[in-house]
Amino acid sequence: MQTIALIAHDAKKDEMLDFVNNHKDLLKNFHLVATRTTGTLINKNYQLDVETMMSGPLGGDQQIGAMIATEKVDYVIFLRDPLTSQPHEPDINALLRICDVHNIPLATNRKSAHIILKYVSNKMD
Ligand SMILES: O=C(CO)COP(=O)(O)O
């Protein structure tokens, strides 16, 4: 089973929940992993079994980065907030970088996330 990482900054959490709601039938077919707050919110709102890491500022981005480095993540959807500075900016940059190192498709906004899931669903037909 392939793995999708789902991560959202606070200003994007509602958008992530809405996105997951719109794609939950497809997402059910994947192992889902998320940073703590994002994953907890998804688990609370929908019948999805998201594995949660630490919260982003406490090292969750790095944990997901390590999963990418060890080829345990296939796609990353990271709805990041481009308008607010984050205390863990170096971790965020490292996560984005490691996706490029390992050629992992990465969506940082809702439209590109939608395109990734469209691609994934076509591959499953
Ligand atoms: O900060 C984050 C990503 O950089 C997200 O972490 P949370 O899902 O715990 O809010």
UniProtKB/TrEMBL annotation:
Pfam families: MGS. InterPro entries: Methylgl_synth (IPR004363), Methylglyoxal_synth_AS (IPR018148), MGS-like_dom (IPR011607), MGS-like_dom_sf (IPR036914). GO terms for molecular function: methylglyoxal synthase activity. Substrate binds at H9, K13, S55, G56, H88. It catalyses: dihydroxyacetone phosphate = methylglyoxal + phosphate. SMART domains: MGS (SM00851). The active site is at D61. It comes from the Bacteria. Coiled coil: none annotated. One of its GO terms (cellular component) is cytosol. Keywords: Lyase. The keyword Ribonucleoprotein does not apply. Its EC number is 4.2.3.3. SUPFAM superfamilies: Methylglyoxal synthase-like. The keyword Lyase applies. CDD domains: MGS. Residues 1-125 form the MGS-like domain. GO terms for biological process: methylglyoxal biosynthetic process. It is an enzyme of class 4 (lyase). Belongs to the methylglyoxal synthase family. Catalyzes the formation of methylglyoxal from dihydroxyacetone phosphate. This is Methylglyoxal synthase. The gene is mgsA.
